[in-house]
Design a protein that fits this description.
The chain is an alpha/beta fold and 318 residues long. The protein contains ten helices and eleven strands. The radius of gyration is 23 Å and the shape is elongated.
């Protein structure tokens, strides 16, 4: 990775401060593009072309794996922002193939690991899991699958299965590792965001400097391509010109949420520069600056709370 050396000095806190102006919270649609499609994994086991949403038309083919492998797969999917659904066998009655404790996981990108016993009952469970993954309103459910005529089976037993949706963490890129970033990044990680912090300054972007998040010393447009644009990009660097470049890049990449830390005057100048560079009115409106719920925040920790509150509200609304 090519690094740009920058002065290893922290910018004034005023350059990182949120003015906390009240703004309407609205979902911001990500721009569809080849870059987003190219990031989606190819899953040879699904029998579906890469990049296609999972559906009940062609069910995924489960890869073998014990309970630990299923849980690891679900955790890894959630960490990269991919939602899924899991089935757990709770009870077995009569002649049935499943065993209590067996698990089967399906991710929205087509990954599928584990088993609930195989056969027609597993197909029925897969259909139920895919229905959960493809329905934003899906909730936990306990269902009984009878191994009778409706499944083309004559075993006569039944399985009681817990079906549960598993939400993916929201992919989040924080550009700049200054005081506000140091406060907000761990807080976002604790409330369901998968956070990557990037700073071109070696000392500030050093891995492990900010607890609980991925921290990288490098250029935002190089590190940022690893973060799914269906998520969040927050810009809070030590330099106003760098902030401007990062916001323009985030808009072009199509991040669902683009936010910047700064005063109302800085926000207005940012939008004027975007207009001068040909960004549409819709794109200019997508820039959330100053970011943060209006709670009168002044210190980095207070600003972090305001930012986290706004992002939680945005996540609920989208």
């Amino acid at each position: 990775m090519t690094k740009r050396r920058a002065p290893d000095v922290e910018g004034r806190l005023d350059g990182e401060r949120s003015a906390s102006a009240p703004l309407a919270l609205v979902p911001q649609p990500a721009a569809a593009g080849a870059a987003d499609e190219a990031r989606r994994p190819t899953l040879a086991t699904t029998g579906r072309p890469a990049g296609r949403p999972i559906s009940t038309e062609v069910l995924p083919v489960p890869s073998p794996g014990d309970v630990s492998a299923v849980l690891a797969s679900a955790a890894a999917a959630a960490a990269r922002g991919v939602a899924g659904a899991m089935a757990t066998v709770l009870e077995r009655h009569g002649s049935a193939p499943g065993t209590p404790g067996q698990k089967l996981f399906v991710a929205e990108d087509g990954a599928c690991v584990g088993t609930v016993g195989g056969g027609a009952v597993e197909r029925a469970v897969l259909e139920a899991l895919v229905a959960i993954v493809t329905s934003p309103a899906a909730k936990h459910d306990v269902r009984t699958f009878k191994l009778g005529a409706e499944l083309g089976m004559c075993c006569g037993g039944r399985l009681v299965v817990l079906l549960e949706p598993i939400a993916g963490l929201v992919p989040s890129l924080v550009v700049g590792a200054g005081h506000v970033a140091t406060a907000v990044a761990p807080l976002l990680a604790r409330v369901g965001f998968a956070v990557t912090v990037v700073d071109a300054r070696d000392a500030w972007g050093e891995g492990g400097r900010i607890a609980g998040v991925r921290s990288i010393a490098g250029e935002f447009d190089e590190v940022g391509v690893e973060v799914d644009p269906r998520g969040v990009c927050l810009v809070m660097t030590h330099d106003h010109a760098l902030d401007q470049r990062a916001i323009e890049w985030a808009l072009r990449r199509g991040f669902a949420y683009v936010g910047g830390v700064g005063s109302r005057a800085k926000a207005e100048r940012t939008r004027q520069r975007l207009e001068a560079k040909g960004f549409s009115e819709a794109d200019r409106a997508r820039v959330r600056m100053p970011i943060g719920v209006d709670v009168g925040a002044r210190t980095p920790d207070e600003i972090a709370v305001a930012i986290a509150a706004e992002l939680i509200a945005w996540r609920k609304a989208r």
